[in-house]
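Peptidyl-tRNA hydrolase
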Amino acid sequence: MKYLIAGLGNIGPEYAFTRHNIGFMVLDRLAAQHDFKFSFERLAFVAEWKHKGRQIYFIKPTTFMNLSGKAIRYYMDQYKIPTENLLVIVDELQLPFGTLRIKPKGSHGGHNGLRNIEELLSTTEYPRLRFGIGNNFPRGRQVDYVLKPFSNEEMPELPVFLDNAGDMVLSFCTLGIQATMNNYNQ
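Tokens:
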């Protein structure tokens, strides 16, 4: 069984620890814990890892958030990954900070990265792991909020939430979406 795990974010040091880069952060944490490395490839940083008989490909698209679908489509075709074995890790304004939800499908909900994926895959039926970043921003300041680093109050809690998200990724690959939803959704 082969899986493609896509953590969404923006490349560049100015975005490194911003809320919008939570997908990159989850994959970086997994890589550090399980000793696999990313290399720069076409359209993404890519890593491969075998876990419990599963071949897992991880990508961090270098296309910037709003064009994430281009990298995902390319690597799905490259590795012949079926849509049900794709998992997209994305920040979610509508969930409180640290709340994690995995779903087998859904709308883009105004998220431009998901909107682009939906357009290029021609479906909304692909699994996604939504990582709550909260919505503590004044009206009209959403872009500023998602492109700012986590607050001093949030930072100490972040590693635990990243670990939980990593556990959900591995569960998705080994137990499947339904079991992962039953075991982890809050």
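The chain has six helices and seven strands.
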